[in-house]
Design brief:
heterotrimer; A alpha+beta (225); B alpha+beta (265); C alpha+beta (243); B: 265 residues; alpha+beta; 6-stranded mixed β-sheet; 4-stranded antiparallel β-sheet; 29% strand; C: alpha+beta; Ribosomal Protein S5, domain 2; 5-stranded mixed β-sheet; 29% helix; nuclease (chain C); Exosome complex component Rrp41 (chain C); RNA binding (chain C); Ribosomal_Su5_D2-typ_SF (chain C); 3'-5'-RNA exonuclease activity (chain C)
Chain lengths: 225, 265, 243
């Protein structure tokens, strides 16, 4: 198991190796958050175990409309920061159509972070093939720090879920995940996601998840379709 | 906001002078500003003092009245210190109940007076367990050009030094001088990196509200320490500051003795 | 409770401790469900709960700082926490403690990473027993780590008092009430050792040398408490992994 580090733990004497979750002071690299130490030959980073979602440009996020304005929508993206989706960035916008006719309070969308200013004002776009207004399916919320584990190395975990259960899954970096497909398969997917969240930093998780899905599918088959 | 812009400009000025080892008003790092003390200026108060430290001005009034002692010390008088950082003293002071800064100021000054035993509280008992003298020390800031704390502490001890206990007014015998046995002096320093400036002005404070106050009694004992502000302090800097504060406190005490006339000898 | 005649008899304090011994400490991480980070801590008879919320949107708008997070710290004593019922709400002592504690954390939390937001630290003293402010800082520190807040390191706090002319670590009630001096201090712990002082207050009468010695004694206590803070945090996360 990877080593757990706490803020202030000395993790390297090579400032050039400082990566995510670390800071440099006086030629030494320290951890700045609680997390798992990830050391490679020339980089050292800390994988967070907890923490709020702080947006980065390029992130895929799932947001919920909190405010409708004439030129766009303010979205809650499960972060200390709200995000703004301009009308011009929504492919469904057409001249003559009012913003609330396209997206109204409480609607959910999959979007991408396209800009962040120094005051952390976040701008989103839906002009990307992964983006869409969410009109069906389910949204699941987990600790954003566990999303990387849900996706897996080179997408291995999320591919497993998709293929084994034949469901659509889009994981937002902000901890929200959209699932679409057969109702009972989505249910298994949801449970599997909570399992991953709970055991994110343990070994052999992928195998255990595969096993879990297999068993649940068996139950389903036994009950009859 | 005008205050913020000026603040930024002043900050740069202070820092650039500091790099040359200087202060913007030419003082040495361990030098207090010019100190002016006037006592007995408020005749309705039992004791009072006005202090002008550089451009900082403060008035302290002492009022006394009989009251109940604290249950765990039934034979000693009670001291209550309150500070009003009233809006007229600074563009940044708001009207209303005391905020955390005025509470901190009052409590640090209270500590200095209490722990140095400057006032002999045992002589302020009227009837054990029932009645003692309450000494209200009220600090009223008039003009905040930095270091209201030290200015207020000086004014407080000077006010006490010329306080007459109004026993006759309450039919409790003859009036007598408040017994003052020590002169605690607080020395506040502004911390900038690994340097410190004693008795900072408002302009110098624009660099950051980071100070440490060391209160010293007449025997060079430290009776109060208060680190204030969001910074990390190294032990070695603390040692330097303690040494300097003890040294500087002696000069201030001399000044207080020189300028502060006692109401009674 | 009357003033004891002597505080140290045959090298032992009134509660049997040696001058450099801490009271028993118990730490539980992630104690509250709703908070982003939390900690329950016992130090002697102190029972405190710390909760951290944030970073979250700062309300009202005008308190927002466009360049960094605003840190708020509320030290509050429950009415039933002390012998004589305390009126609810902040009193002057609580306000001062909240101020200096907040400043200690402001010096170590990486506020610049979260402009316009607020990080709220709430600590409730359910039972008070000398040194409650130091217990609260220790609990708040753990709660902040639990919340995933980036910091330079962990804050560890302890007090040193002087009784019968002797410096004692982590004073108990009688030592705090009747002692000759009391010095609460908090250190930034980094690289496994004491880095610098984040909080320092003293009231009483001490010489320069005594203060130096008191800090030395405090450091010893802080190292022990720091180990316990670490263990409590590790225990929680290792447990998760073993399931």
């Amino acid at each position: 198991m990877r080593k757990i580090v706490l803020p202030g733990d000395l993790i390297s004497n090579n400032p050039k190796a400082a990566g995510y979750g670390t800071y440099v002071e006086g030629e030494k690299v320290y951890a700045k958050i609680l997390g798992l130490l990830d050391e490679t030959e020339n980089s050292v980073k800390v994988i967070p175990l907890k923490g709020k979602y702080v947006p980065s440009i390029g992130d895929t996020v799932i947001g919920i409309v909190k405010e409708v304005t004439a030129n766009g929508w303010n979205l809650d993206i499960n972060s200390p920061y709200q995000a703004f989706l301009p009308l011009t960035e929504n492919p469904e916008a057409k001249p003559g159509k009012k913003s609330n006719e396209i997206l109204d309070l409480g609607d959910a969308v999959i979007a991408k972070v396209v800009n962040i200013d120094p005051r952390m004002r976040v701008t989103l776009t839906m002009k990307d093939k992964i983006c869409r207004a969410i009109r069906f399916g389910r949204i699941v919320a987990i600790n954003p720090a566990r999303i990387p584990r849900v996706i897996g190395k080179k997408g291995s975990m999320i591919k497993l879920l998709k293929s084994e259960l034949d469901v659509q899954i889009v994981a937002g970096q902000n901890g929200l995940i959209w699932l679409n497909g057969d109702r009972r398969k989505i249910s298994i997917a949801e449970e599997a996601i909570y399992l991953i969240e709970e055991e994110a930093h343990t070994e052999g998780l992928t195998d255990r998840v595969a096993e879990f899905i297999r068993r649940r599918k068996e139950c389903l088959d036994q009950k009859g379709s | 906001m005008t205050e913020d812009i000026l603040s930024e400009i002043k900050k740069d000025y202070v820092l650039s002078k500091l790099r040359d080892g200087e202060r913007i008003d030419g003082r040495k790092f361990d030098e207090f500003r010019k100190l002016e003390i006037k006592t007995g200026i408020i005749s309705k108060a039992e004791g009072s003092a006005y202090v002008k430290l550089g451009n900082t001005q403060v008035v302290v009034g002492v009022k006394m009245q009989p009251g109940e002692p604290f249950p765990d010390v039934p034979d000693r008088g009670v001291i209550i210190v309150n500070a009003e950082l009233v809006p007229l003293a600074s563009p940044t002071f708001e009207p209303g109940p005391p905020d955390e800064n005025s509470i901190e100021l009052a409590r640090v000054i209270d500590r200095g007076i209490r722990e140095s035993e400057a006032v002999d509280l045992s002589k302020l008992c009227i009837e054990v367990g029932k009645k003692v003298w309450l000494t209200f020390i009220d600090i009223h800031a008039l003009d905040d050009d930095g270091n209201l704390l030290d200015a207020s502490a000086i004014a407080s001890i000077c006010a006490l030094m010329n306080t007459i206990v109004p026993a006759s007014r309450f039919g409790l015998g003859e009036d007598f001088c408040l017994p003052v046995n020590d002169i605690p002096v607080s020395v506040t320093s502004l911390i900038i990196g690994n340097k410190f400036l004693v008795d900072p002005t408002r302009d110098e404070m624009s660099v950051g509200e980071r100070t440490i106050t060391i209160t010293v009694d007449r025997n060079d004992n430290i009776v109060a320490i208060q680190k204030s502000g969001d910074y990390l302090l190294s032990e070695s800097l603390l040692e330097e500051i303690m040494d300097t504060s003890i040294r500087v406190s002696k000069k201030i005490r001399e000044e207080i003795l020189r300028q502060c006339s006692k109401a009674c000898q | 409770m009357p003033r004891p005649e002597r505080f140290i008899i045959d090298g032992k304090r009134l509660d049997g401790r040696a001058p450099d011994q801490l009271r028993p400490i118990k730490i539980e991480v992630d104690y509250l469900k709703r908070a982003d980070g939390s900690c329950y801590l016992e130090m002697g008879k102190n029972r405190v709960v710390a909760a951290v919320y944030g970073p979250r949107e700062a309300h009202p708008r005008h308190i927002q700082d466009p360049t960094k997070a605003v840190i708020r710290y509320r030290y509050n004593m429950a009415s039933f926490s002390v012998e004589e019922r305390k009126r609810p709400g902040p009193d002057r002592r609580s306000i001062e403690i909240s101020k200096v504690s907040k400043e200690a954390f402001e010096a170590v939390i990486m506020k610049e990473l979260f402009p316009r937001s607020a990080i709220d630290i709430f600590v409730e003293v359910l039972q008070a027993d000398a040194g409650s402010r130091t217990a609260c800082i220790n609990a708040a520190s753990v709660a902040l780590v639990d919340a995933g807040i980036p910091m330079k390191g962990i804050l560890t706090s302890v007090a040193v008092a002087k009784v019968d002319g002797v410096l004692v670590l982590d004073p108990m009630k009688e030592e705090d009430n009747y002692g000759e001096a009391d010095m609460p201090i908090a250190f930034l712990m980094r690289g496994g050792k004491i880095d610098s002082i984040a909080l320092l207050q003293m009231d009483g009468r001490m010489t320069r040398e005594e203060i130096r010695e008191a800090i030395k004694l405090a450091k010893k206590g802080a190292m022990e408490i720091y180990q316990m803070q670490r263990e409590a945090i590790m225990k929680k996360f290792v447990q998760e992994g073993e399931e």
